[in-house]
Amino acid sequence: MDQILSLTADNLLSPVILSFALGLAASLARSDLSIPEAIAKGMSIYLLFAIGFKGGVSVASHGIDATLGLSLLTGVLLSALLPLVAFFLLQVLTDLDRLNAGAVAAHYGSISIVTYVAGTSVLESQGLIYEGYMVAVAAAMEAPAILSALWLISRGGGDRKMDSDLWREIILNGSIVLLVGSFAIGWATGEEGLAEISSFVVSPFKGVLCLFLLDMGIVAGRGLRSGSGLIKPGLLAFGVLMPVLGASAGLACALLLGLSTGGTVLMMVLGASASYIAVPAAMRVAVPEANPSIYLTLSLGVTFPFNLTLGLPIYVAVARTVTGG
Amino acid sequence: MDQILSLTADNLLSPVILSFALGLAASLARSDLSIPEAIAKGMSIYLLFAIGFKGGVSVASHGIDATLGLSLLTGVLLSALLPLVAFFLLQVLTDLDRLNAGAVAAHYGSISIVTYVAGTSVLESQGLIYEGYMVAVAAAMEAPAILSALWLISRGGGDRKMDSDLWREIILNGSIVLLVGSFAIGWATGEEGLAEISSFVVSPFKGVLCLFLLDMGIVAGRGLRSGSGLIKPGLLAFGVLMPVLGASAGLACALLLGLSTGGTVLMMVLGASASYIAVPAAMRVAVPEANPSIYLTLSLGVTFPFNLTLGLPIYVAVARTVTGG
Amino acid sequence: MDQILSLTADNLLSPVILSFALGLAASLARSDLSIPEAIAKGMSIYLLFAIGFKGGVSVASHGIDATLGLSLLTGVLLSALLPLVAFFLLQVLTDLDRLNAGAVAAHYGSISIVTYVAGTSVLESQGLIYEGYMVAVAAAMEAPAILSALWLISRGGGDRKMDSDLWREIILNGSIVLLVGSFAIGWATGEEGLAEISSFVVSPFKGVLCLFLLDMGIVAGRGLRSGSGLIKPGLLAFGVLMPVLGASAGLACALLLGLSTGGTVLMMVLGASASYIAVPAAMRVAVPEANPSIYLTLSLGVTFPFNLTLGLPIYVAVARTVTGG
Amino acid sequence: MQTHDAKRVEITIEAVMQSRLTEALKSAGVTGFTILPVFGGSGRSGEWSRSGQVSRASGMVQVICIIRPERLDALLEAAFAVVDRHIGVVSVTNCQVLRAERF
Amino acid sequence: MQTHDAKRVEITIEAVMQSRLTEALKSAGVTGFTILPVFGGSGRSGEWSRSGQVSRASGMVQVICIIRPERLDALLEAAFAVVDRHIGVVSVTNCQVLRAERF
Amino acid sequence: MQTHDAKRVEITIEAVMQSRLTEALKSAGVTGFTILPVFGGSGRSGEWSRSGQVSRASGMVQVICIIRPERLDALLEAAFAVVDRHIGVVSVTNCQVLRAERF
Ligand SMILES: Nc1ncnc2c1ncn2[C@@H]1O[C@H](COP(=O)(O)O)[C@@H](O)[C@H]1O
Ligand SMILES: Nc1ncnc2c1ncn2[C@@H]1O[C@H](COP(=O)(O)O)[C@@H](O)[C@H]1O
Ligand SMILES: Nc1ncnc2c1ncn2[C@@H]1O[C@H](COP(=O)(O)O)[C@@H](O)[C@H]1O
Ligand code: NA
Ligand code: NA
Ligand code: NA
């Protein structure tokens, strides 16, 4: 418990988290502080490229673990099954209709790459190592949740036709392609490639992350201001409970796979985090009747800050205890 | 005198100043060289974040000086009183009407953060140290000038109603919030926080400043090309005299406060510099009848280059002489 | 031969080339991966500034070579004469009309600065030095080709009036001004200037180049998808043959000038590369009837990847053999 | 297809006044509008461009409202109160819309 | 100058639906259109802004097609099929064009 | 409110021709116009998008002029002289404006 508290305090006092808090506060106070859309997108491209590349390099250096394939498979299953849990929990806790519940559930099966990145940066500051291929697991977990959520929704009648365009959009979504592609580049070029571009992908990484989280704080605050009416107590409870369930499922998987302590934390983070880029876009196409304010506010305004502030230290402490790392 | 000349030569030959000159020349020659708005805003966000953060870290390391509070107060007073001087000088030197004179005066009470940054970078190349909290003083000086200018204008009749929205916009202006917020983050996380992100906020800082000044040169040149007809000799004289008066007032304050040599230079720079981001926006809301070409051209096209090229070396030389630093 | 193969393999496995391949693949697979226009422009401004600045610093450190003037002159002539070769070759290989052939020819006389940059980065990884002023030669080669191409077109009748606006646009084109300007800044500030901003213009350079090439791959792929119908076999052959001819002409010039091995490679690269920024814009103004899909697809979709992947290693191997470097 | 008469109001206004205008529109009962970025322009106060600008002071946006004809006057009164002392242009065009129940 | 009657159709639609709309337009024989970026807006589903957004989920674009009057109905049918279940606004204005052979 | 008849001219033109068009408009006595960025489009010369582009060669802008009806012809002549050889679309709509003295 003490460990959790001190970790939480450390975590809360990092520039990354404080930048998020600054953005959130500015936005709630209705400051006009804002970051241009192009800059936000540019930062997200940088982060995806850097995280994928570094993951690939790490696989190139440490060789492929026998568990790589199993981990990918586990990630896919986790992503596909968590929406069922989320859907059930939503029906217990909230009065969302099937469409909205399905759309929310899709977000929680999928993952948030920024939460993942924040996780790796906590691990590094704790000196915990982790499997480099976890970033590939992250990529593998982006899409399956969408499919199971659409299946959940279509069971209620009404045809949710997955046309081939939508399939392509989901699978070849820009963030998945960039993550997988830069992972492959890092893998192919290895330490030598890293030496060439490490002062781009490594050194400024955490600083860029600060500004990116500043932006996410601003956007989350804006969402909370306009969407707060929609976030009833039941939904709020879901936004905090679901990541804990997701992290527990991630923990179970990590233990089965025998991941390192760091890898266990990241698997928990992937389970716990909710998408706010790829899944919302897919939901707008496939389930236009669902209200985006609900899933965006919940994912970005409730679950993301929860994971960032309290979740991460808890996941680290639990993983250390359980794995003895 | 020799010292001033050599300092000036050094200063003029820095990449930062030459980048401004390049932008200015390109724009006056009507080259299509331009920097996208989003990139310019992105760079300004980076610079504000970095300068605030480093200021906060410096306060965390050196402890709070007894003069911090006094310096803030002095800054507020300086910002509030300089518009009166400016307004008087404008009535002597130019034939601007009350509205335009008031709008111009507001700019000269407030500050230009880029001039401040250029000042710190001259100090660093000279090995002069300065109080880290000066960046907080800079933030404190952004807004008061607006209020006294509006008071000056309203004395001439006509209601300049400061509705609560305008108040909030001025006080919670994005650049103030970011500067103060990142100052607080730097303070809270200290040297440890700096170690995490110094290869983002420290190493590339001066290079980004070059590109930002390239952009400011382009924008200033554009303004000079279209607004040059408005800048009569009297106004031009004001644009050069006023920063000297502002710097003198800053010097007096710094001596009263007993600041370090570097701190004295920065207080002079704050007094001397004129706003070109926050104040123009406030003036468009509160005094729409005033002509923006006048105050923007004067601030960005005359006073900014004056401070950058001749002003800075003079302020450094004077401060060194007076404080014996 | 072995040397070429191993160089090619090395080259193909660099993060820079693989990033281009990733962008190309994503785009051909119709992924929605895209980089905002403002970010792409921002990166190109960064690259031009950094490459010009470093060239200038290198001239400042190594002194002006007697051949600087001659190299510039040679560059101008090469740029002016290559379009004649290209035009002739197009008439042999393709059935393009005079307007389209002239527009394409203009591109091949001019240069691609990114190909140049990729060339310098191969040289650096091979430990080959080169004349710093080659970047000034690159700048000098941007425009002359446009004039000879317009002359070629106007010989066929129809007035291609070069109004003074177009002259100014070509000569004061943003990329020329930035390249020449930052070269001058680098020259003026020398090693001292470089020390101030090297963690901006040197360290992250190659990483930014990766993301920029990712973007170029995306744009090239988009062009290939929509313009592939236009690229008949004859045109395709031209897109591969012409760079080889251009490189040969560059080689001859370099030998006459007595350039270093690295300088020889760069002169070959300048001869071989085709413009895709400045010339297309000039052609839209001066020869609006020519089809931009033809010259853009050819330059960006065929010749650029050819130079990047196969061309560079060949040019290096040939230059090493011929100069004995 | 079945279309219905409506008015398309296009208000080009300074970016700093955007939120004041949209607040005024909402007070006048107008809830639907679309905001387009403006890249530059020219008017009695000279020519301008957003490129490279950091301050919001020199920049405009275009607010487009499509409304039922009977609500035009309320909208124009509200818009005029904001635009009055500021630079900006208001134009109204007749148009036809699908799904009239939305307006 | 000689001008010709035409229709200006303005479709404000979610960014995620853009390619589906333009495909539908092309199937309906409409080959000319211009796409404007949209910065923000407000409607029954609340207010939004693009600033700082990374996801394409919350964002709209404006597709403008200028067509001969006789092709309006085909265009509206095609557009409506896409817009139907989605948020979005379609308006039609009468206009005059130069160079009618282009449309 | 009191409104006045005017014409809204919308010229979609290549970005490289923007300054030539606005110079021509100014020579024809048109001083007021607003320039909107264009994100992409499609026409006889194919489909295009600004995203990721560095060159100004492939890109368009939309120039909107609101003018008094009697000045329309001069404007169209001026615009046409520039647009003629270039790709681009010119449309004219009737509109109503507030504050007619401005136009
Ligand atoms: N006649 C017009 N047509 C279109 N836009 C205009 C017109 N007049 C002014 N504008 C826009 O409104 C801004 C301010 O106009 P002004 O108040 O005349 O300086 C200009 O910069 C243009 O963006
Ligand atoms: N009456 C309207 N006029 C202009 N744009 C509108 C209007 N109604 C809705 N929109 C645009 O369409 C979007 C979605 O509208 P809605 O479906 O009502 O939420 C809004 O955010 C606006 O950008
Ligand atoms: N009918 C149209 N409606 C709207 N925009 C058009 C139309 N035709 C062409 N455009 C725009 O003008 C550009 C060039 O058209 P074109 O000359 O036909 O290739 C297109 O890419 C569109 O942006
Ligand atoms: Na999850
Ligand atoms: Na001041
Ligand atoms: Na060439």
UniProtKB/TrEMBL annotation, chains A, B, C:
Keywords, sorted A to Z: Membrane, Transmembrane, Transmembrane helix
Annotated coiled-coil segments of the chain: none
Transmembrane segments: 12-33, 45-64, 70-90, 102-121, 133-154, 166-188, 194-214, 235-259, 265-287, 294-318
Species whose genome carries this gene: Ruegeria sediminis
UniProt KW Membrane keyword: yes
Record-linked PANTHER family: SLR1512 PROTEIN
Any Pfam family: Sbt_1
Name of protein: Sodium-dependent bicarbonate transport family permease
Keyword Transmembrane helix: yes
UniProtKB/TrEMBL annotation, chains D, E, F:
Organism: Ruegeria sediminis
Annotated SUPFAM superfamilies: GlnB-like (SSF54913)
UniProt protein name: Nitrogen regulatory protein P-II
Cited InterPro entries: N-reg_PII, N-reg_PII-like_a/b, N-reg_PII/ATP_PRibTrfase_C
